[in-house]
Give the backbone structure.
Amino acid sequence: MKTRNLVLGVVLAASLALTACGGGTKGDGGDGADSDVPQKGGTLSVLLNADYSHLDPAMGFDGGVNNFYRLIYRTLTTNSTESGKTSEMVPDLATDLGTPSDGGKTWTFTLKDGLKFEDGTPITSKEVKFGVSRVFDPAQGIGSPYAKTLLDDGSGYQGPYIDKGKDFAAISTPDEKTVVFHLNQPYADFASVVGQNSFVPFPLGTGGGTAFDAKPIASGPYKVESYNRGSELTLIRNTNWSESTDAVRLAYPDSFEFTFGLDGATIDERMLADQSGDKNAISGGSLQPANVSRVQTPQIQDRAVKTTAVCTTYMGLNTTKENLSDPRVRQAINYAVDKSSLLTAAGGSQLATVANTIMVPSLLGRKDFNLYPSTDNKGDVEKAKALLAEAGLPDGFEMVIDTRGQPKMTALSEGIQQALAKVGIKVTLNVIDSSTFYEVIGTRSQQHDAAITGWCPDWASGATFLPPLFDGANIADKGNSNLAQIDDPAVNQQIKDIAAMTDVDAANAAYGELDEKIMELAPVVPLLYENGLQLTGSNIGESITGFNGGIDLVTVGLVKPGK
């Protein structure tokens, strides 16, 4: 059930517990109904600062768009929407969580009956195979890396558009209902992998180039009616979606209207005022730090949703760049950063806590440590200077940091700039538009010395944090998740060894140990574990926060659809 009153200042447990949300001024209709229960119908609005990175699930791979994808797409498995269990994977298109064989190198899934795309054509095993094969196209597969990593059969396969007519042997389809994945290594948690965006099915031969960025083909409860890039997006019901086959998506609204390009302060003012159509809206991002203190009256508290910290904000250090190739320089930067000032810039303890590890506290097996401590987290200038001198840079050096043009990110960037200046490192900020930020920093030719970004888990395991960020095999010209571009043989081998473990609990503990080993190399600077604080309109019913931290869009709806 939902938490009606948000008590600011309460320290939430570092768990994946759900926080439910709802409107504040409910129950005024006198109809005797539960005033917080969403009803079918109506149009729900989502107010956002920036457009989604990509509507094509092979290309998008960030927390916001992952949440959105579940409205229009389905995968073999997906995260539960059951209260208290959103970290768990449940069957979606598949009848169960799959059957492993061959020591965990082969996984078999059976599809449910009655599955269709938005045009009414059936979803069979061949469409699943085609959808997954798309991620091997070098221009399109810039999103989730798991399929490319685990299904790489060594043939050099480049997807169905380039290698048209070539069979991809890593996936077999013995009949219309059966999909068999042949992995290149044992993987005990593959049931979680097939719940990622790269496992969305599509009709054979569709989606070449940027087709799905303009007009996706839906398998979920909604389809795209209209889309004006950077401005607005409207979803309407997909009448060929079968509710009886989908135990996850509640699909309350008749339609969703997404508005992009709104200033964060404007979104806050509209949501705080709760006027007219905004009663049917939710903020698509977190409250601006400057407005946290305004969430204090009971009416507003009841419309606020605070989530547990499930994402780590960090600064990736490009180890291929001059100076940053020396681990002593990277360690010096870790010592120099004043995380206390960054916490203040992010809105204080209501919105974040200081990070010292790469893995967020909510992950299973996570180890708590701090290799670069300082008094009150204010940074240790002397240790930083000593390491720079040892590396032959007593006078510092110049570097460029990629960042986004958002108020909070600007504040964080400037805080790092000021802290590094104290040790002689002159920082120039390269500000990138938010809607293209992840794609730009994931393109090696466009990446500078460092980037301030974040990472959220795809499921509750270090497998979704450390391999994508630090396995040398994940370094790519486009869609590069290893921003540090670190290719350390010992780290690479340990990642392989953990992936081969058949005991998931032991593997999770091993990832906690690997976290510390990686931080000895200092390829990143963990900055903050960020909470979310979203506001909902007063006509929004109870819902839950999803595994990635924000309000789960597939659970949200209006109390009075006609209002």
Observations:
- The longest helix spans residues 504-521.
